[in-house]
Task: inverse folding
């Protein structure tokens, strides 16, 4: 398949299938709210659609989407703090079977601690431990240096470690 | 990032477990497509990009620019009908035609954006009000009759022959393309204009409205379709005939005669023409910009082109220092303004603002005397025009609150209206229904903000189905631009929020 002949619409369709769900989950970690997360991701796809002519490459497109989602999530957080009031209560959402071993309490604690982190640290932690991105990919998505990724990661991790170890 | 750390592993598992509880709604792809379509429409209509007419087929070409891709396709399909002028004299004379009335469109129908239809209705709201009141006469549902009466509105009753009536599908939905002509002095029937119409709303009783009219040899190229304009207005166009005088006028559906002073331009053969027209709009709203040539025999119109423009009453405001304006900056000078609102206990409230550029101003509005009312919810620039709007909590019910909007229009504070009365934006809700409003940042490709409202109902208290409506703040009124279905499922937040705006609940 030649990337150059894929239209923006086709590209969006296949990128959607490949990345939409995980992007929404990343955004949900950054935003605390699934509805807004979906909107942010949808807007990122719309933006990508507009830039497809220049991007063309599905690899770069995925990186572009991650970057757009992180940036948009951050500005949403800044501008729409009010969204928090409408966020669903964390509640005992049914964990799927394979993750049943992870206690709901532990999850809630980690998520709370994650949300208390400074924005950059939270972004780095989510991209590294949930999205499994490399340091270079994280640096690109956040527009910071690899060194900065390292330092945000270690600080964020240290903060979370304190929380988690207090529990166990 | 090396070495095995059991804690990192555990963190991974926790995050995966948490992520697994996040389930997207499932309609994401269709949402994206709808947003792309909407962004594309906005992009086409951005001033400056408008209208690259190669206008031999002036009307059709202009229409393609107006409607974007889907219209281009329509145009291609229709090309042979468009390039051949309708045959002479074979067409029926005046009166109702055998036009097969367009079937009510099926499936989701894009709704025409306010200001993009010019007659007899300029907005979906107007059309729906007429439809609801059952007041629409039969001709509203007949495309040919509506087109003929449009000629009456333009004071060109001599154009009374329907030469063709074709189906056309555009991004605004199913519509018609009606070619009108008249009997010339030499006895032949000649086409004068091609009137494009869409149905506003849905159902068998939805009325037709004219979107744009083009001519074969005469085109308007500026201002753009539905462009906001002020007097005096520079109008440009092309003409491909012998030297002819082009008359230009501005009309409003509420007025019988033009609201503009006479203006004319001389057009040469295939030459651009230009003139300036002055008008006085009694109110801000959609106007009709008309260009026409008259036959050499002087017995009537030869070519007519018309397009909607958004007329502004009043003079241009001072330029704001930043778009969007900073929170609190009502008068656009970069400095925050002080606002207070007090209830009078008699169903009204008075808002007083100390405007740093204009001094103290007050305006009164309807507000209940419920506890907590009235209150200023925030002063934010909801449409990124450089002037912040004041949102006032004016009514609170058991589960729903209402906000009204005050903004500066021509340096005066006014209470924003919607369909003629004080606008009230609902927010809040209960098990059965939810309402919210906020402002949305537009795509980066076309930065800006739009005010929206959402209303949904629910049978189970989990999933709320309803629609989102997007508005434009235009002078002292709120105009519904478009509206589309939107469902908010369990765990999703209703669309809401506008900068620092605080909702009492």
Result:
């Amino acid at each position: 398949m030649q990337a150059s002949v894929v239209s923006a619409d086709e590209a969006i369709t296949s990128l959607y299938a490949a990345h939409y769900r995980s992007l929404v989950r990343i955004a949900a970690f950054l935003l605390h709210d699934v509805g807004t997360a979906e909107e942010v991701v949808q807007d990122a796809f719309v933006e990508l659609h507009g830039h497809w002519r220049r991007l063309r490459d599905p690899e770069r497109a995925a990186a572009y989407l991650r970057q757009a989602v992180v940036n948009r999530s951050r500005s949403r957080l800044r501008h729409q703090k009010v969204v928090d009031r409408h966020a669903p209560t964390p509640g005992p959402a049914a964990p799927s079977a394979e993750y049943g071993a992870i206690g709901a309490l532990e999850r809630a604690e980690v998520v709370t601690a994650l949300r208390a982190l400074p924005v950059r640290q939270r972004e780095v932690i989510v991209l590294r431990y949930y999205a499994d991105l490399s340091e270079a990919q994280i640096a690109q998505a956040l527009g910071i240096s690899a060194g900065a990724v390292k330092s945000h990661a270690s600080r964020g991790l240290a903060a979370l470690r304190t929380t988690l170890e207090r529990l166990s | 990032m090396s070495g095995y750390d059991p804690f990192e592993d555990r963190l991974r598992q926790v995050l995966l477990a948490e992520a697994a509880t996040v389930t997207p709604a499932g309609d994401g792809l269709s949402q994206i497509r709808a947003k792309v379509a909407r962004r594309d429409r906005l992009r086409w209509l951005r001033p400056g990009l408008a209208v690259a007419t190669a206008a031999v087929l002036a009307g059709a070409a202009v229409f393609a620019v107006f409607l974007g891709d889907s219209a281009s396709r329509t145009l291609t399909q229709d090309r042979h009908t468009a390039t051949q002028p309708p045959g002479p004299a074979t067409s029926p004379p005046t009166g109702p035609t055998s036009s097969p009335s367009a079937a009510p469109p099926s499936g989701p129908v894009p709704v025409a954006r306010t200001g993009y239809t010019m007659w007899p209705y300029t907005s979906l709201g107007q059309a729906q009000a007429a439809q609801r009141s059952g007041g629409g006469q039969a001709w509203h549902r007949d495309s040919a009759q509506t087109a003929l009466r449009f000629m009456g509105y333009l004071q060109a009753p001599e154009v009374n022959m329907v030469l063709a009536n074709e189906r056309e599908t555009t991004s605004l939905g199913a519509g018609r393309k009606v070619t009108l002509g008249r009997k010339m002095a030499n006895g032949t029937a000649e086409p004068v204009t091609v009137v494009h119409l869409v149905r506003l709303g849905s159902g068998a009783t939805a009325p037709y409205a004219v979107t744009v009219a083009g001519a074969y040899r005469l085109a308007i190229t500026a201002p753009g379709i539905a462009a906001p304009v002020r007097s005096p207005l520079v109008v440009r166009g092309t003409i491909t005939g012998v030297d002819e005088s082009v008359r230009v006028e501005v009309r409003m559906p509420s007025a019988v005669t033009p609201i503009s002073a006479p203006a004319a331009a001389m057009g040469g053969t295939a030459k651009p023409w230009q003139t300036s027209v002055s008008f006085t709009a009694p109110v801000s709203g959609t106007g009709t910009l008309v260009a026409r040539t008259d036959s050499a025999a002087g017995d009537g119109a030869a070519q007519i082109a018309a397009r909607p423009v958004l007329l502004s009453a009043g003079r241009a405001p001072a330029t704001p220092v930043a778009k969007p304006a900073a929170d609190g900056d009502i008068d656009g000078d970069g400095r925050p303004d002080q606002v207070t609102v007090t209830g009078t206990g008699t169903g009204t409230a008075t808002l007083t603002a100390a405007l740093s550029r204009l001094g103290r101003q007050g305006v009164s509005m309807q507000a209940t005397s419920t506890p907590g009312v009235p209150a200023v919810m925030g002063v934010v620039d909801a449409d990124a025009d450089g002037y912040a709007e004041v949102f006032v909590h004016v009514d609170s019910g058991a589960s729903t609150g209402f906000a009204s909007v005050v903004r500066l229009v021509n340096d005066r504070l006014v209470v924003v209206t919607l369909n003629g009365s004080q606008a009230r934006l609902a927010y809040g809700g209960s098990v059965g229904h939810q309402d919210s409003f906020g402002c949305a940042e537009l795509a980066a490709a076309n930065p800006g903000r739009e005010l929206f409202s959402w209303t949904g109902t629910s049978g189970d208290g989990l999933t709320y189905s309803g629609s989102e409506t997007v508005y434009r703040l235009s002078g002292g009124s709120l105009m519904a631009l478009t509206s589309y279905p939107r469902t908010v499922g369990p765990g999703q937040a209703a669309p809401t929020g506008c900068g620092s705006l605080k909702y009492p609940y």
User: Anything to note?
Assistant: Chain B touches chain A through 46 residues (CB under 8 Å). Confidence is low (pLDDT under 50) at residues 43-111 of chain B.
